[in-house]
Amino acid sequence: MNIIDELKWRGAVNQTTDEEGLRELAEKQQIGLYCGVDPTGDSLHIGHLIPFMMLKRFQLQGHHPVIVIGGGTGAIGDPSGKNSERVLQTMDQVKHNEDAISAQMIKLFGTENFTIVNNYDWLSKLSLLDFLRDYGKLFNVNTMLNKEVVASRLEVGISFTEFTYQILQSIDFLHLYKHENVQLQIGGADQWGNITAGIDLIHKVEGSDTDVFALTIPLMLKADGTKFGKTAGGAVWLDPKKTSPYEFYQFWINQDDRDVVKYLKYFTFLGEDEINELADKVQTHPEKREAQRRLAEEVTKFVHGEQAVVEAQHITQALFSGEVQDLTAEEIEQGFKNMPSVEVSDEKKNIILWLVDDTKIEASRRQAREDVKNGAIRINGEKVQDVDAEIDPSAHFDGKFVIVRRGKKKYFLARVK
User: Is residue 34 marked as binding?
Assistant: First the structure.
């Protein structure tokens, strides 16, 4: 299947400047294509995966993806999707973010047939006079004002700095066309104005018959109409220190039946037959959640690797069954990150006193004795029914944790000081 036809089947194409021309070009030669990411933070999140999945698909078909780290544009601020000015970062912050994001990119794309560049390398060399004479003269202010990204900000106001962002992004496209053989820019639906401005610039500089293309991705919405990628706890990060692989896996496995097939098409490399088979299972046996499990496995493997999938599944199974005793200390750190926790000393103590005085898991000694006698308390996966039993916080999990389960589902984590 031609890459453009595959992207359309997967629901990944919003707008293109010349779909037939792009399809023909992709058939006859390797395409250089790019998308940019400004280093506004030191980790990417799953929203960034939306364009990156596109680049990865092109890479798998032999094309050459280029990522532009916006060391230059990131110091200015993209007005796209914002209703107010961005807070400018220090150059030290930008540099730290660039390094962290570059490492994440290499993890996703490898080093073969893939390039990372930084637009600071060429934008920083432009003098103000060069910018105005060589590029400013080629942009019509009326046209710039009509671009959605600017028009949406005119009522609340937009600084000259952010107004010029589309010129800088256009210079990026021209530079990459000249120096990296890039003919296609990919971005979100809100980037259409910026990307087409780049095509206009290339046509003015290189000639109107120059083969360059734009392709944007539909806005990713959940079935309930809300924006994909946001959770009650905030963004879902690609950095395992910010969002553990277990949390990442859980995000995908908890997707709505109405969304899961769309996400399988978009965020996995599974073929049409397998996705259609999983779509049938969503209709016939939704309670088994096979499509969600497959989605979680595939995306977690892509971002964090095979071992992360194994660990996430191990934690999931242990929490579901209550058999937590075989978890490693690292798996506990992942799986219990958002569960109620308390710090305790490493001293041995009677279970009743420990549950009431040290951890406050039980409200009173009477309640604690009742729960222990009734078999409602498990310590590190083991049921404890002796009110005279002793808790030894250093006995399990490298002496770092004690896991308490009260009833069938309530978990508590005691961190040993």
Answer: yes
